[in-house]
Amino acid sequence: MNRSKHTKRYERRGRMVSPQTFFAALRAGEPIQGVWLNSRRYHVFCESGATCVECGLEGLYFARERSPGQKGKFHFNLYGIQNGTEVLFTRDHIQPLSKGGSNKLENQQTMCAFCNQRKGNKTPESSQVVKAPS
Fold first, then answer.
1. Which of 70, 81, 91, 94 is the most exposed place for a label (fewest CB within 10 A)?
2. For residue 93, what are the β-bridge partners?
């Protein structure tokens, strides 16, 4: 499996965690591998699912990672696999913040990085997102 440009920048530690295990710990308020699950992004994935709303790519696992320069501060990223390459999942604002949208959970959805990048700040009415390459 190859790591895409979106995923190579993270330092990875620990084992992969399935979405089912991750969401159960999130609902129970329990940490996983020493990471408290208090990010809004995790709640978006839990509520709207681990599948990209545009292309249908399924998130297969969460990886414990940290950004370069963040000593000791780990977080989890959701990944799927497409054509042998990891694809990072993101939370998307359905109605973009730049167009008056809010940070409420109801205005957020799960998208893979490819679809989210293509959507940009388009509104649902104007969005014609091209599906991720298959």
1. 70
2. 108
* Residue 95 CB burial class (10 angstroms; 0-12, 13-18, ≥19): middle
User: Residue 60's CB: how many other CB atoms inside 10 A?
Assistant: 16
Residue with token string 């973009």: 96
β-pairing, 61-66 vs 108-112, is unpaired
> For 17-30, what is each residue's pLDDT tens digit?
999 999 999 999 99
Which of 56, 48, 40 has its CA nearest to residue 19? 48
Q: Residue 101's closest CA among 75, 130, 127, 128?
A: 127
Helix (H) or strand (E) holding 117: helix 113-119
Could you give the CA distance from residue 56 to residue 44 in angstroms, rounded to a whole number?
A: 16
Read off the pLDDT of residues 98-126 as tens digits, 9 standing for 90 and up: 999 899 999 999 999 999 999 988 887 77
Q: In angstroms, rounded to a whole number, what is the distance separating the alpha carbons of residues 112 and 129?
A: 12
